[in-house]
Amino acid sequence: MSVAETDLAAAADAIRRGELVVYPTETVYGLGADALDPDAVERAYEAKGRARSNPMSLGVPSVEAATEYVHAGERERRFMRAFLPGPVTVVCEKRDAVPDVLTGGRERVGVRVPDHDVALALLERAGPVTATSANRSGTGSVQHADDLSDEFLEDVSVVLDGGETGGVESTVVDVEHDEILRRGANADAIENWLASE
Asked: Above 80 in pLDDT, residue 23?
């Protein structure tokens, strides 16, 4: 399902104003805020009811864009080129532009380049944005925009309805340390790449 250009423009404008947006990805619906604006990131934590020590990832439209916000070694870049865009979150050392509130004070941040036309179109217009599931912490991830709770939607300015999503959350991987931090989509292929590269 495609999204109207006017809806994309409204979502990008909302993010630039520091507001929250729900957007579809190939895995689950995501909650988007300006990932470089600490106040906007704080609003995303509030909406989710998420502990500030639990980091959020950064969504960008391409591997090239990712390298503007993280320090990625050659092996990490090879991995990104092999698996992104796709249902993978790659944990890398953050650059100074990435606020500590996004990473829970850590020096590393997860990077996501979703394989979804609507998500990529939004990220092209407003990226980088937070890449975290659009739900209250402790409740299930959402595959249909209709399943977003009314309570959650009170904090959201725009919902981009892209139809049903894939449902399996991204695999989180720390390439530098050869570690899969969360198994999700493509986990076996990622494991094989880490073992062979």
From this structure: yes
